[in-house]
């Protein structure tokens, strides 16, 4: 069960990290080429379609599956795998908090901004674009790091039994030249 939850954490986090990465390298760069009115209109339309059940499942699933994987893998004596999953959970939390307290409120501000003139569109864009992109870069980096940590946790094979405990407490050999 714990292995399946860990894999679900990796998949959902990978989907969210992939969404953020593609948005950064494709959508954001395309939007930057638009005029103010086109930019504001396009961003408003994107913000109408992105919030959906599949997106929500991936977005929240990345955090919930990762936290659940951490709880299920957390023995009395933490292993490297436990630390990897715990660090990934922190990264997922950062991504969700940045989205919930930064990007989503900015989306709401853009949706309600007055846009009756070219000056209004310019002001709406200037009040939004750089702040939103900075926050998006943070959540993109956090979700990508979470994915790397979860993949490492998936491939990490903790040793079992007394032999493993002895190996974990043994000093690490140092190679000299």
From TrEMBL:
Superkingdom of the organism of origin: Bacteria
Pfam family, one: Anthrone_oxy
Transmembrane intervals: 53-72, 84-104, 137-157
Keywords: Membrane, Transmembrane, Transmembrane helix
Family matches, as InterPro entries: Anthrone_oxy (IPR013901)
Protein's UniProt name: DUF1772 domain-containing protein
């Amino acid at each position: 069960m714990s292995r399946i939850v860990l894999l679900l954490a990796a998949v959902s986090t990978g989907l969210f990290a992939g969404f953020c990465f593609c948005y950064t390298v494709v959508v954001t760069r395309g939007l930057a080429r638009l005029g103010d009115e086109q930019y504001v209109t396009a961003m408003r339309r994107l913000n109408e379609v992105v919030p959906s059940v599949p997106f929500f499942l991936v977005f929240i699933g990345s955090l919930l599956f990762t936290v659940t994987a951490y709880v299920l893998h957390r023995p009395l004596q933490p292993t490297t795998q436990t630390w990897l999953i715990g660090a990934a959970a922190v990264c997922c939390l950062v991504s969700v908090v940045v989205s919930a307290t930064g990007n989503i409120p900015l989306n709401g501000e853009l949706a309600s901004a007055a846009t009756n003139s070219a000056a209004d569109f310019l002001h709406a864009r200037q009040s939004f674009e750089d702040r939103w992109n900075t926050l998006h870069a943070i959540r993109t980096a956090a979700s990508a790091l979470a994915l790397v940590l979860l993949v490492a946790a998936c491939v990490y094979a903790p040793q079992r039994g007394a032999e493993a405990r002895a190996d974990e407490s043994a000093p690490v050999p140092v190679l000299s030249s």
